Amino acid sequence: MVLNTKGGCGKSTVATNLASYFAYEQELNVALEDFDPQGSSMDWLQARPDYYPEIKGIRAYQDPARAPKNTDVVIIDAPAATYGKDMSSLVRRADTILIPVLPSPIDIRAAAQFIHDLLLQGKVSRKQTRIAVVANRVRENTRVYHTLEKFLKSLKIPFIATLRDTQNYIRSAEQGIGIFEMAPSSVYKDLEQWERLTRWLRSKRSLPEAAK
Ligand SMILES: Nc1ncnc2c1ncn2[C@@H]1O[C@H](COP(=O)(O)OP(=O)(O)O)[C@@H](O)[C@H]1O
Ligand SMILES: [Mg+2]
User: Fold this and answer.
1) What are the counts of helices (DSSP H) followed by strands (DSSP E) for the chain?
2) Burial 69-107 (b: 16+ CB within 10 A, else e)
3) pLDDT interval class at 211 (50, 70, 90)
4) Cα 41 to ligand 2 centre (Å)
5) Per residue in 117-140, pLDDT tens?
6) 97 C-alpha to center of ligand 2: Å?
7) How far is the CA of 104 from the centre of ligand 1 (A)?
8) Is the torsion defined by CA of 206, 15, 74, 90 positive or negative?
9) Which terminus of the chain has a lower count of CB atoms within 10 Å, N or C?
């Protein structure tokens, strides 16, 4: 599940590229559930050319349909601004939660508060769900994450990847494909950045105790 109450931090970007990773790179059956009424993930799927591996789209915000039985991986694109009870029932669906955060002091403070609420109001049980943070749209070696890093360390939440700010993600959104499906010569830097993220997802560390 890709989650953050802030809009525009990269939830749909991470969710759609992850779907492409599992479908194209790992050749798995992927379902992409969009809980955001803005439907960005579903727009992405709509733009996806037929000759790329199929990803099953579920407009979860209007249709509670479940992923097909043969699904290997479910990616959930969560809506911005989910509060209280809604949040609790949503996060309970996830084995693993990825939180994209933009490199601005305001976004970082909001993310720290959000993670604090998730954990300390008991919405997420550390036994049932793994959480990691992804820094998104990073322009250079920014130091702004320093405070967030310290905070995450105190909670033992890993900061697993940094994704740069690049037109490749804009192209990805327009064309319905992930960076894994683009010409390697134009995305090699991004593939390198995603390697850390996907390695963590492939490792048992991304799975909750219950699923190991
Ligand atoms: N790393 C990035 N580099 C460039 N543009 C990005 C990046 N991540 C997201 N974007 C763009 O920023 C906008 C918001 O991202 P999006 O994934 O839709 O956020 P959210 O789903 O959290 O609202 C989109 O136009 C998206 O293409
Ligand atoms: Mg979105």
Assistant:
1) 7, 6
2) eeeebbbbbbbeebeeeebeebbeebebbbbbbbbeeeb
3) low
4) 7
5) 888 776 788 788 899 999 999 886
6) 15
7) 14
8) positive
9) C
Angle, helix 184-202 to helix 167-175, in steps of 10 degrees: 80
Question: Average pLDDT of 73-83?
Answer: 87
pTM above 0.90, yes or no: yes
**pLDDT averaged over the chain?**
90
Domains contained in the chain, CATH given: 11-203 (3.40.50.300)
Which ligand has the shortest distance to the CA of 40?
A: 2
Residues with CB under 6 A from ligand 1: 7-13, 40, 80, 136-137, 163, 165-166, 169-170, 173
Ligand 2 centre distance from Cα of residue 136 (Å)? 14
Instruction: Please say whether the beta carbons of 190 and 164 come within 8 A.
Output: yes
Note the pLDDT of residue 152.
Answer: 81
pLDDT digits (tens, 9 = 90+) for 8-63: 999 999 999 999 999 999 999 999 999 999 999 999 999 999 999 999 999 998 88
Best of 6, 13, 36, 75 for a ligand 1 pocket test (most atoms within 8 Å of beta carbon) = 13
